[in-house]
Amino acid sequence: MPGIALVGIQWGDEGKGKVTDLLAEKTDLVVRYQGGNNAGHTIVVDGERYALHLVPTGVLYPDCVPVIGSGVVVDPQVLLEEMETLAGRGVDTKRLLLSGNAHLIMPYHLELDRVSERRLGKNRLGTTKRGIGPAYADKAARIGLRAQDLLDPKIFSEKLTVALKEKNLLLTRVYGRLPLEQADIERAYLDYGERLRPHITDTSSVVQAALDGGKTVLFEGAQATMLDLDHGTYPFVTSSNPVAGGACAGTGVGPRDIQRIIGISKAYCTRVGSGPFPSEADPADAEILVEAGAEYGTTTGRKRRCGWFDAVVGRYAARLNTLTELVITKLDVLSAFDPIRICVAYDYEDQRFDAFPPNQTIFNKCVPVYEELDGWMEDITGARRIEDLPKEARGYIERIEELVGVPISWTSVGPGREQIVRVTT
Ligand code: IMP
User: Fold this and answer.
1) Which domain holds residue 412?
2) How far apart (Å, rounded) are the C-alpha atoms in residues 124 and 364?
3) Which region holds residue 121: left if phi is over 0, alpha if psi is between -120 and 50, else beta?
4) Same domain, 43 and 154
């Protein structure tokens, strides 16, 4: 089983880092396929806590090659800073590979992300303000600059001239900002290019060669299914395709090279930023979840919105990603609740929806239908085998499995590496 994709099935922050950690030791390559430094994986290895935004988690494992695929948008300054921080903590970053086709986040992307959000006022998306949307927009508009352009000053300068002409008009005439100087950008970016030169390569061939050689390749998704540009809660989404299919386009491998697709879900549900969230809990329950689950963003520090597990979303994600298994994280956070709610369907006007509704008006206005399960109200953070879990906790896991229709392989009961329970053998 050489190709494994790891995807969040909710609105992000499902704890994908913990699952990567579980698999990484037996993995030869960890490949990021979309997103940028809007992501945040927290990983604890040998008692050391690492918050990674752009560098694939594989960097923490000496035998693993971390790869940034062509579908990722890269802020080279952030990448170099992250590499330096890691190196300063003794992590070898020399193995890191960056696709020459990956698009660059430019200073005007950051500026435009900030000013366009401000302009949207109450309709703002609540982006991470890292320039992600504007960078992907330029990629689609074919005026983006790519990592390989950093290695050719003439090409870089020509492309930047074209892009900057338009961006400066936008910044000055539409948003009333100062224009950016081409010479400043060129100086900074060509310097980044020199420093990144040893890492920039044709990663698609590297990944394919690894797969052909029977190596294990982990395709690491950032954000999650419900933030997918095509299939999520548009427009309250990110600007890339976190779904498993995105791993093919974002790295340059074919669909038949990915055999195992692991969906990651919290035992409850969170989202950051704006947008519909049918199973959002009432403020008192949400506060308990925030505190027990430490639900603050790794990238922005924002408090996450919290709610109950949504099985409709789970089934939708199982279909979109063709999940072969599911991992449920943070089960211990629910120890404070009895009963525990699961959203099993939505009601809209006089219709019941068991499947994800076909249009956003329904999703925006639907009323969640809850099932209540017995809570266990005891500390489960010491559980290591399925038999260690109280019967109510096992019942909860089984019910999710039934409702989503995908076998659950693991559940985590705390942040530590060892706080994980194998559910199916
Ligand atoms: P952007 O990706 O910065 O453009 O933000 C678009 C939406 O995706 C916003 O609602 C963000 O809060 C959300 N988002 C982006 N990255 C993450 C993440 O890693 N976890 C959770 N939400 C995210």
Assistant:
1) 265-422
2) 16
3) left
4) no
Residue 53 among the catalytic residues: no
Q: How far apart are CA 124 and CA 108, in angstroms?
A: 19
Looking at the structure of the chain, the number of domains it has is: 3
How close is the Cα of 237 to the center of ligand 1, in Å?
7
pLDDT band for position 301 (cuts 50, 70, 90): confident
- Residues 362-381, mean pLDDT to the nearest whole number: 97
Give the max Cα distance, the chain: 66
User: In the annotation, is 13 catalytic?
Assistant: yes
Best residue for ligand 1 mutational test, from 227, 229, 269, 295 (most atoms within 8 Å of Cβ): 227
One domain, residues 214 and 235: yes
Are the C-beta atoms of 270 and 11 separated by less than 8 Å?
yes
Q: Whose CA is nearest to atom 9 of ligand 1?
A: 127
Beta strands in 148-274 (DSSP E): 200-201, 217-220, 260-266, 269-271
pLDDT at 425: 62
Report the distance separating Cα 326 and Cα 317, nearest Å: 11
Which residue is catalytic, options 21, 41, 75, 257?
41
> pLDDT, tens digit, for every residue of 311-345?
999 999 999 999 999 999 999 999 999 999 999 99
For the whole prediction, is pTM greater than 0.85?
A: yes
